[in-house]
Amino acid sequence: MDNITHAATERSPEVAFDFANSHLRLKGESYPEDVAAFYGPLLTALDRWLAGRSGSALTLDIELVYFNSSSAKALMNLFLMLDKAGAAGNSVSINWRFSEDDDIMEEFGEDFAEDLQHVRFTLCPLPAS
Amino acid sequence: MGALAEEYLGFKTILGQKGIIFSFSGYVSEGILFALGDALKQKMALEETDHHVTRKVFSIFVEQVQNIIRYSADRMTGDIGKPVELSSGMIAVGQEGGSFFVVCANMVRLSDMERLKERLDHIKSLDREGIKAFYKEKLREDPEMDSKGASIGLIEIARRASAPIDYDFIEVGGASAFFCLKAFI
């Protein structure tokens, strides 16, 4: 499966979906003009890569400073897909990185963590810049 | 003083009296959202506004403007070599009593007004924990039919606001209503 990489823009995060090394990364801001056009292909590719997979280890590193409510829905869909992969016998880690003084991102991380049962969801505070 | 300057100075004075820092009225696009949002962040940074406050103002601004873009009943669509969709509305960001506010307004179909009122009243009836729980509930739900996710945008606005959101409608003509939503940060 081909890796997916997009440079960050002012409205969309850097994407590095390195399927070869089972490592996914999203970093930056997320309020794309068209959320479905941005996240749809990522979710489709991940879904195909996960199909029938079991016994794999997979890590998602996510470091967002801002996302709008439409992006939140897309992130939830991404996490639910990973949760399902965890339930299917994969070892899935999600690292939620946020600035230690960013209460909003910390709370979002806690909220997502509460909703997922089959992944290791780790809150990773970073030193405030 | 000429009549032209007098007229527009009067307009500017009214905006100033309402504490409005900047405002926009007319057809909105995602490009306008980005440009206005960027100017808003820059202005708040220049004034050394607490970045937590800036972030909440920006978040409410984005959700409010996207509500206009998605739901305004006054819109134009067409093709000028590329598909174009423009939605009409009003956006104002200001300060009142030491707090920032974001007001957005747009026309809605009268037939949509009751449902929107119900949603807003429900959100207004919730406390902080209730708002947070409702947000989580909506995040897991499939998008409602013919809604591109309005509820969650409204909940995000309520969640970032420092006081209950304020809204109002005035019926205009036979089939439309003018809808305003104000959130303080």
Describe the structure.
Chain A has 129 residues and is of the alpha/beta class. Chain A contains 3 helices and 6 strands. Chain A has helices spanning 35-50, 69-87, 103-115, and strands at 4-6, 14-18, 23-30, 57-67, 91-99, 120-126. The N and C termini of chain A lie far apart (37 Å). The termini of chain B are far apart. In chain B, helix 3 packs antiparallel against helix 6 (150-160). The mean pLDDT of chain B is 91. Chain B has one domain (3-184): Histidine kinase-like ATPase, C-terminal domain (Heat Shock Protein 90, 2-Layer Sandwich). Classes of the chains: A alpha/beta (129), B alpha+beta (185). Chains A and B meet through helix 2 and helix 3 of A and helix 2, helix 3, helix 5 and helix 6 of B.
Quick one: which chains have the greatest interface?
A-B, 18 and 24 residues
Order of strands side by side in the largest beta sheet of chain A? 1-2-3-4-5-6
Quaternary organisation: heterodimer
Count of DSSP-assigned helices of chain A: 3
Order of helices and strands of chain A: EEEHEHEHE
User: What is the CATH T-level topology of chain B?
Assistant: Heat Shock Protein 90
The residue fraction in helices of chain B comes out at 40-55%
CATH superfamily name of chain B?
Histidine kinase-like ATPase, C-terminal domain
Helices and strands of chain A: which structural class?
A: alpha/beta
Q: State which percent range the strand residues of chain B make up.
A: 25-35%
The stretches of 5 or more residues of chain A where confidence is low (pLDDT under 50) are none
Mean pLDDT over the full residue set of chain A = 95
How does CATH name the architecture of chain B? 2-Layer Sandwich
**Low-pLDDT segments of chain B:** none
Measured by DSSP, the beta-strand proportion of chain A falls in 25-35%
Shape of chain B: globular
